[in-house]
Hints:
Layout: H1 2-20, H2 36-40, E1 52-61, E2 64-71, H3 74-81, E3 85-92, E4 96-99, E5 113-114, E6 120-124, E7 129-133, E8 140-141, E9 143-151, H4 154-157, E10 163-170
Antiparallel strand pairs: 1-2, 1-10, 2-9, 3-4, 3-10, 4-7, 5-8, 6-7, 6-9
Amino acid sequence: MKKRLCLALILVMSFALAACSNNDNNLSETDKGHSASDNSNRAQEEPTEDSISNIRIKLTFNKEEVFIRMYDNPTSRDFLERLPLTLTFEDYAGTEKISYPSNKLSTEEAPLGIDPTVGDFTYYAPWGNLAIYYKDFGYSKGLIKLGKIESGVEKLQDINSDFTVTIEQVD
């Protein structure tokens, strides 16, 4: 009985490891996660200066204000249509502040992922959460840039508990 149980466990573990293994050995680091069919209908990996819009939003929390310049992409436009919002943010991994809006945002024309930097206002499609980076982080598949903090990112770094943020578009 023990032998059968061990054999069954080994089989399950083997299948799990095979399913989770990365099979991109032939691709360069920049090509991983991309295929010819993916690239033909996808937006650029990183927003360019041309994709920055004139639209700004304001985050108000703890008697502080942070202004974000939004990018012009379908996910950002979907987010802007939902404003104003009041959301609770929490710290995640000592790198970002995250919140879960009630409904997922559009991922139409979204890149496969991005390499976020300090001040990036993003949407993580797999979990359906917003993320504001106050530290740099590595490439994340499923992450979409919504905007960039113009000033005040340091106001987020020292908040250690959950906090409520009002988000509204400004002129």
